[in-house]
Specification:
With about 100 residues, the chain is an all-alpha fold. It is built from 5 helices and no strands.
Length: about 100
Amino acid sequence: MDQNIREKIIEMFNLGSLPEDKKEEMIHQLGELVFQGAVARGMSMLEEEDQTEIENSVGDKTTPEEMMNVLMAKIPNFMELVGEELERLQQHAAASMGK
């Protein structure tokens, strides 16, 4: 996962004081949610041909970093989508906690 995204997750969700193993678990879970949301939004913006190309270029052995590179090549504003998904997740979490 990108270091900037990790730092934003730690800051936005106040994970800094957690024990390291719990912090890593939360970063992983929140990162997956954010990534899934950004991928879904990004893919919906693409032409069907580009969607098919991305689907064919990734497989079971594709690392998250390789997947990010493919997505950023086809979706110029992918990192912006990731940031928006982070904010959306934070707002949803705050709303569900009554804040």
